[in-house]
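Private note to self, pasted from the team thread so I don't lose it. Backbone tokens:
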């Protein structure tokens, strides 16, 4: 429940940021039009230094604020990616890649139709997410930016020994180990996503992280039911 409330607050915050950006653009256009129409005008508005004001929605639980056009433009520019955003995306690409490595073993080793369907669902969800994160990095120049983080230390990652054990398993033994490793893997992904939701600054990264939390929480519940 706490996680759901946290995600709701983060999504409300993203909406506030988008609203500020929209009103900033409108305000800028209004200000430009006023300048064009009032060239040479020495009226009261020009003398007082006044200009169009913008009502910006407040954060959850906070009242709306009235901003000048300049303040609105400045507020709209405060969602540039930070180091937490880059670190999360770079690590999660690798994290998802191992999930696909795990699901890639299922078809040939599992005897369970339910486990096979789960693996197909995970693959179908995480492949496009990798593509979206790679696209985000390209758009933001992330290929040239390294975080210096040890990807092998990411939460939830299966060790080489565990991977070898899974590759050697078959049938029911494989299914049991796969569900155990994938549950841990998902829990690690949720930890990473939760961290960037509190530390990151980019709206698109927040949306991707929120999707990871929602989808993988549901899959953990499914895997625990399958394991019982």
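Design output:
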């Amino acid at each position: 429940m706490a996680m759901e409330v946290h995600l709701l607050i983060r999504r409300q915050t993203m909406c506030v940021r988008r609203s500020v950006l929209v009103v900033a653009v409108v305000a800028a256009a209004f200000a430009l039009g006023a300048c064009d129409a009032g060239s040479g005008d020495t009226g009261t508005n020009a003398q007082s230094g006044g200009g169009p004001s913008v009502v910006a929605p407040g954060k959850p639980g906070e009242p709306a604020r009235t901003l000048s056009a300049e303040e609105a433009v400045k507020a709209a520019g405060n969602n540039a990616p930070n180091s937490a955003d880059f670190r999360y995306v770079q690590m999660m690409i690798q994290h998802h890649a191992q999930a696909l490595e795990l699901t890639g073993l299922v078809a040939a080793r599992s005897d369970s139709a339910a486990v096979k369907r789960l693996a197909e669902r995970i693959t179908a969800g995480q492949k496009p997410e990798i593509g979206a994160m790679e696209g985000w990095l390209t758009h933001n120049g992330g290929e040239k930016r390294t975080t210096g983080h040890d990807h092998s230390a990411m939460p939830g990652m299966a060790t080489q020994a565990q991977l070898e054990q899974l590759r050697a398993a078959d049938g029911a033994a494989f299914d049991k180990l796969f569900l155990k490793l994938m549950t841990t893997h998902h829990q690690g992904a949720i930890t990473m996503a939760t961290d960037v939701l509190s530390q990151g600054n980019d709206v698109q990264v927040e949306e991707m992280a929120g999707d990871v939390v929602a989808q993988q929480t549901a899959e953990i519940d499914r895997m625990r039911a399958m394991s019982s």
